Amino acid sequence: MVVPISGKTIAEKIFSAHSDSDAHAGDIVVADVDFVMGQDGTTPLAIRALESMGVESVFDPAKVAVVMDHSSPSPIEGVSALHTMMREFGKKTGAKVYDVGCGVCHQLIPEAGHVVPGDLMVGCDSHTCTYGAVNVFSTGVGSTDGAAAMASGKLWFKVPDTMKVTYTGELPPGVFSKDLILALAGRIGVDGATYMALEFHGPVIDALSVDARMTISNMAIEVGAKAGLMKADAKTLAWYEGRGDRTPNPVDPDDDAVYADELVLDASAIGPQVAKPHAVDNVSPIEEVAGTPIAQGYIGTCTNGRLEDLKVAADILRGRQVHPDVRLIIAPASKQILLDAMEAGYIRDLVEAGAVMVTPGCGPCVGTHNGVPSDGENVISTANRNFKGRMGNSNAFIYLGSPATVAASVIEGVITDPRKYFTGGEA
Amino acid sequence: MAITAKAFKYGDDINTDYIISGKYKFKSNDMAAMSVHAMEELDPHYFEKVSPEGGFLVAGTNFGMGSSREQAPLVLIGSNTKAVLAKSFARIFYRNAINTGLPVVECDTDLITDGDELSLDLEAGVLRNLTQGTEIPFPPLPPVMAQLLADGGLAAHFREHGGFAVK
């Protein structure tokens, strides 16, 4: 083990511990990874890369999982063949297979306790940065990197510089963690943190639930970051109770850690934010886009498909109706969340209001199934990306907002400020 | 060894959905079939223009932002793109390019106009704009990446060395 050394960021400490070296930003290290994940858009290429490497097994079957979430259940025979390939890979290597309907990889991996605070993990999906919210240095890699990690349990990394982002003040009613990260994207841009890790701090982060924190870390990649790290606090450790048998090893930054950049944002001054087509940093306060007609709403994804997201939507939609010219599609992020939301009555509220439930997984986010928009249509979505063509049609227009913003908007058929449902208490 | 080809120039923040749309990447593992759709969202004729004689894809900042899909560098290779030259790259794309054997060069692409004839010698570290008669400097690849690229990508590196043999 490495002796603790002062002056390090969370990223530098995790890389030091995993490479048995004194790692500092800019160093290139070969590090041990605690877990490797792939999904159905990337695992088939990783399997092919393993074949090309001449590798027949994975370094530790308990530390590898593959998830069918992006196009699942299969809409066409090509995807069916890829899913079969993944199932056979699981049988051959012993890697954990999450089959259709289990949920989105980025919900399943922490939910099952596969990763714990202090870990280093890689996933063949760019939103792998999500688990930074639970103090895991997790980052997205391509299929060949994923294959190398599955084969050897190691990968080379450049230890990133860190940008420290502190949210001060207090989150106003009707404003959510999604608005905080969209505000950051609007401020620093889609390449504002390229090659860097983000560290999120401050009273606003401390006050958020683990679910809400994941929304922020999930979108670290949308400003180019390699990771979106937070400290593990009592809430994090409580969240891990009953999730697997691994012991968390929380990693705090040193007080004298050296940051490449520091940014302070006043959450009290942030209102609901909307990212307009076709870029995640094309962000406006909701007042500037309110009234824009929409044809489809989507609540779900690795960004905002968690229980409290469904609760916020159900609280707004309960006893109300989705506008007749609008479709509302909902995909819970996992089977467990679907069950919990059923138990709590949210699913009944949402379906009675006119929502269409689809399989736990990525839903229509990636344009493979479950609600491809038509030419010229505007979509308001809780996802993390609004690139042209993202939902399967380059002639559609995607706006991104919080679950509350989507729920408020689908009722009126136009982009709507959700704060009216939060002033003076319950909707 | 120098590669000589024409420059095909595009803008900033070209994301992986533009390089290859998600709707194609989930259909199959057949890169040859997928490659005809390379860069389609930005330029529906990219494959027809580049594939016959090969070309350099030239871009501005943050090339390859977005998804981790390795299909992005693979369809560029499949469309006979010899290298990507950009002012900066998104990190996952950059790694994927090296790992799959697609050369990536960080340089001042303001010095290149669409249609210019370029000559790139990666080993010697020389990029020439033959049309304008200029030489464009670029920093050398870090040793780890240079070795992976020289070995023909990460899979080939593993095949040859039985694991990581870098550093």
Report strand order across the widest sheet of chain B.
4-3-2-1-5-6-7
Q: Which ranges of chain A are low-confidence, i.e. pLDDT below 50, for 5 or more consecutive residues?
A: none
Query: What's the domain count of chain A?
Result: 3
Q: Approximately what portion of the residues of chain B adopt beta-strand conformation?
A: 15-25%
- Average pLDDT for all residues of chain A: 96
Query: What is the quaternary state of this protein?
Result: heterodimer
Biggest interface between protein chains, with counts per chain? A-B, 55 and 44 residues
Describe the protein's architecture and organization.
The complex is a heterodimer of chains A (427) and B (167). Chain A has 427 residues and is an alpha/beta fold. Chain A has helices at 10-19, 43-53, 77-93, 105-111, 143-152, 177-188, 203-207, 210-218, 234-239, 301-304, 307-317, 335-343, 346-352, 403-412; strands at residues 28-32, 35-39, 64-67, 96-98, 120-124, 137-140, 154-158, 162-168, 197-201, 227-229, 261-266, 273-275, 283-285, 296-300, 327-331, 355-357, 378-381, 397-400. Chain A has a 5-stranded parallel β-sheet, with helices on one face. Chain A starts with 9 loop residues before the first helix and ends in a 15-residue tail after the last helix. Chain B is of the alpha/beta class and 167 residues long. In chain B, strands 4-3-2-1-5-6-7 form a 7-stranded mixed β-sheet. In chain B, helix 6 runs parallel beside helix 7. The relative contact order of chain B is 0.17. The chains are: A alpha/beta (427), B alpha/beta (167). Chains A and B meet through helix 2, helix 3, helix 5 and strand 7 of A and helix 2, helix 5, helix 6 and helix 8 of B.
